[in-house]
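Study this one:
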Amino acid sequence: MARKCFFTGKGPMVGNNVSHANNKTKRRSLPNLRTIRIKLDDGTSVCVKVAASTLRTMRKKS
C-alpha cells in the first residue's frame, strides 16, 4: 500500500535539506500515517491508513 492517506490523498512531499554551507540535497517529507479500523454498515471492518491530521478532524466532526 502506498504512503497515502485514504481519505485526503495526502502523500510524500519533496524538498531540500539545506546545510550551513548552503549545500542542497533532496529529502522526502512523509505524512504522519496511522492505521485505523473502520466498521462498515454491514458489520465488517476494514483497515485503512489515515493521516493524523485527518483523524483529528474526523474525531472533531463526529
Notes: The mean pLDDT is 95.
